[in-house]
């Protein structure tokens, strides 16, 4: 198979693609006409651990937001593959496509990149490698046991565009001091959405400026979406159907879910509107202030909570609904760049993410394990970050994790579900605005999807 060519005009090409699949244009080339790089097992050999021998030193250029965060992981990787060094290319708020293009133009192409959204745009621009042939030849991938559908979340037109760099879990944060003040016990891990709502009302004392639920947009974005799945009204997060082609947000059942959540503000008074929160100095918008009982948290909040929280806190899994107890998780895409001159080493960095040492390191940072392995699951009990906390809830969050939608949904940036629901729940926007907005986007995404076939 011939190697993929990016061409000398890559800078102009990738910049024109930045907004293409966000819905600004429905015109693009089809991926079926592009040439492919040699698969692993052809003239590229994916070398697994223990086969290094006398290797020429390799430096991988890795585009990432996490400046300084992955240093320990880089060192673990270097210990396993001593001839490979990771050079992190910081994003610094610059569009990743621009970084790729500038490095390519300078003759120093990057090898691997993290991607936030628009995986399809990167694929359509010929910027990322199809990982399928590499995965098929990889001993690490073939021996690992992944959660069902794990590697399918970043597949489009039968191509594996990326693998999850990290599984970022979320939990319900609990202010145990506020519960105790009102004589409420810590809920069990099989608690329900009705339990959540009732407890939130019990611990609300507006005279003391204390409320059941943090008035953060995050709580609506994650929890309402999860409730729709838990009650059996949506197949995926963000109210998406089974094959990720249409939003179900405007269906009567999910509209009722929105009303249920809206009533935390309008009926129960356990969560403040934006106007009320602002009038009180926005104290209830941040869980660490100690004025709210429940909030959404992920690995990014753990260091601050452990260091600065002036109260006892813990975590719970997302509540049970009528049919299931789904969690909420974000997979950060990690892609190999088509312009890489070090594809063998680049894929070793990708596959390394699923080794025991990398998985345990990620658990230490508060992430989920991505591999189903008893040894790795047992490590949750040893991880210092969870000492004294509800470790079983963390395990349940890993087992029940449902991936946030959007990575390969065409026209995703024009899907205005989040701003719309924030305006309805925390503001005074008419709930019926959901219907026309959803209809317009559903039509748009189908048109864009059809143009990419």
From TrEMBL:
The keyword Signal applies. Residues 27-55 are annotated as: Disordered. Keywords: Signal. The keyword Membrane does not apply. It comes from the Bacteria. Residues 1-22 form the signal peptide. Residues 27-36 have a biased composition (Polar residues). This is ABC transporter substrate-binding protein. It comes from Paenibacillus xylanivorans.
């Amino acid at each position: 198979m011939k190697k993929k060519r990016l061409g000398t005009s890559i800078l102009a090409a990738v910049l024109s693609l930045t907004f293409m699949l966000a819905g600004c244009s429905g015109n693009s080339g089809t991926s079926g006409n592009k040439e492919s790089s040699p698969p692993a097992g052809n003239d590229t050999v994916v070398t697994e651990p223990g086969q290094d021998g006398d290797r020429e030193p390799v430096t991988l250029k890795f585009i990432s937001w996490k400046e300084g965060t992955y240093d320990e992981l880089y060192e673990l990787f270097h210990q396993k593959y001593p001839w490979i060094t990771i050079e992190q290319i910081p994003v610094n708020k610059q569009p990743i496509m621009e970084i790729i293009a500038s490095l390519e133009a300078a003759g120093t192409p990057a090898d691997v990149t993290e991607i936030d959204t628009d995986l399809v745009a990167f694929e359509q621009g010929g910027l990322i490698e199809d990982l399928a042939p590499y995965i098929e030849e990889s001993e690490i991938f073939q021996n690992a046991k992944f959660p069902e559908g794990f590697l399918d979340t970043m597949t489009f037109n039968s191509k594996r565009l990326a693998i999850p760099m990290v599984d970022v879990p979320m939990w319900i944060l609990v202010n145990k001091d506020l519960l105790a003040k009102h004589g409420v016990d810590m809920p069990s891990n099989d608690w329900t959405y009705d339990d959540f709502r009732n407890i939130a009302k019990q611990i609300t004392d507006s005279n003391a400026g204390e409320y059941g639920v943090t008035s953060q947009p995050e709580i609506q974005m994650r929890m309402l979406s999860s409730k729709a799945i838990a009650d059996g009204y949506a197949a995926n997060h963000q109210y998406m159907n089974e094959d990720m082609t249409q939003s179900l947000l405007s269906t009567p059942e999910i509209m009722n879910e929105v009303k249920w959540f809206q009533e935390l503000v309008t009926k129960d008074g356990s969560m403040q509107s934006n106007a009320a929160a602002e009038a009180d100095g926005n104290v209830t918008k941040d869980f660490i202030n100690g004025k709210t009982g429940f909030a959404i948290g992920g690995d990014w909040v753990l260091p601050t909570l452990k260091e600065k929280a002036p109260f006892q806190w813990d975590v719970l899994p997302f509540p049970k609904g009528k049919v299931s107890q789904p969690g909420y998780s974000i997979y950060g895409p990690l892609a190999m760049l088509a312009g890489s001159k070090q594809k063998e080493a680049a894929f070793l960095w990708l596959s390394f993410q699923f080794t025991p040492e990398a998985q345990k390191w990620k658990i230490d940072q508060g992430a989920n394990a991505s591999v189903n392995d008893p040894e790795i699951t047992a490590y949750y009990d040893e991880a210092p970050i969870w000492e004294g906390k509800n470790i079983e809830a963390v395990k349940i969050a890993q087992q029940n994790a449902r991936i946030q939608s959007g990575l390969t949904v065409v026209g995703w940036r024009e899907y205005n579900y989040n701003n719309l629901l924030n305006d309805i729940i925390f503001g005074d926007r008419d709930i019926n605005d959901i219907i026309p907005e959803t209809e317009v986007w559903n039509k748009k995404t189908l048109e864009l999807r059809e143009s990419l076939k």
